[in-house]
Amino acid sequence: MKLSLNEKSLIFSSTDIPDIFFTEYLPEANGNYIKVYFYMLFLSKYNKEIKVNDISKTLSLDFPTVKDAIKYWEDKGVLVKKTDGYSLADIQELEFSKLYSPKVTSSPEDAIKNSQNQYRAKAVENINAQFFQGVMSPSWYNDIDLWFSKYGFDEQVMLALFSYAYDKRALHRNYIQATADAWSKNNIKTFNDLEAYFEKQEKRNVINNEISKKLKLYRKLTTYEEEDIVKWTENYGYNMDIIEIALKKASSNNKVRFDYIDALLTDWHKKEFSTADEINTYLNSLKDKDKKTKQIEKVAYEYTQSTFDNLNSLYDN
Q1: Is 82 in a helix, a strand, or coil?
Q2: Nearby residues of 89 by Cβ (< 8 Å), 6 or more positions away
Q3: pLDDT score for 292
Q4: What are the helix (H) ranges across 30-87?
Q5: Could you tell me the pTM of the whole model?
Q6: b/e map of 40-61 (b: 16 or more CB within 10 Å)?
Q7: CATH 1.20.144 for domain 103-189
Q8: Closest Cα partner for 273 from 232, 314, 305?
Q9: CA 65 from centre of chain
Q10: Helix-helix angle 258-270:240-252, to 10 degrees
Q11: 125: Cβ–Cβ under 8 A, 6 or more apart, which residues?
Q12: Among the four 28, 66, 148, 167, which has the fewest Cβ within 10 Å?
């Protein structure tokens, strides 16, 4: 790997880092990746040939981590692979070209100007002030503008989206994009939609925790188990009173498995039971039926034994 620039005295020289790096790249990058980038930026001022192994030893990072870091910066376009090594791109020029790429992005001023109304522009200003201390990267303006158009969120939902990511300590594009996708799939457009969604999520969490507690599951429920619970509560319309009957049944039969519990609840749903009383009546009828069957079997057995004994008595003498 060969990185080049002018040689200067280490004592009096300095390495410049553009401000755009702190707003655009630093928040999302792994700490070790930043470490590798800074070192390579420093070395780019000197006509030195180095290898991945050299970076690994100098920075006390394992070899795979350095390779991953190089791949990360390559994917970002910050590091450009050449036939004789690598060169560092000018990230200021890189971000400038992103901002003014035709049909894809617009300038921060254009993003606000093209907003539907003054409330949307105000929302963008609030996001900048509340979550970026007034120094939001220019590319965020484009993303927000595009998300407004793509998802049809109102201004309060867009603010809530950034607030949600901020509270989760995940104020980066991938997380915000994934959250926005999830909200959109749940038909969220207005703040009322969002409140209803959060309320539903809270109810799900309460039921999930209650089921885990009753079954003594000292682990997080799997995605498939959570999907089963959604089916029981939202598709079947069953509350915890009904679900608990299935949990007790599974426990008493030593079959504390979600597939068994799901089979019980699905069977009750097919039988169109909608209350705990209906299900308990049904289960009691099964017990009575089973009890009567056992009584009949007992009488038949006793009758057979009695007949056999009588036949044997014929030969007593």
Answers
A1: strand
A2: 77, 78, 79, 80
A3: 57
A4: 31-43, 52-58, 63-75
A5: 0.55
A6: bbebbbeeeebeeeebbeebeb
A7: no
A8: 232
A9: 25
A10: 130
A11: 112
A12: 167
Q: Which fold has domain 2-95?
A: Arc Repressor Mutant, subunit A (1.10.10)
Residue 109: predicted pLDDT: 59
Q: What gap in Å lies between CA 142 and CA 144, rounded to an integer?
A: 5
CA dihedral 119, 120, 123, 127 (to 10 degrees): -170
Biggest CA pair distance of the chain: 126
Taking the chain (317 residues) in consecutive chunks of 10 residues, what is each chunk's mean pLDDT? 53 79 84 89 73 85 90 85 75 70 53 61 88 86 89 93 93 92 94 93 92 89 92 93 92 86 93 92 82 56 48 37
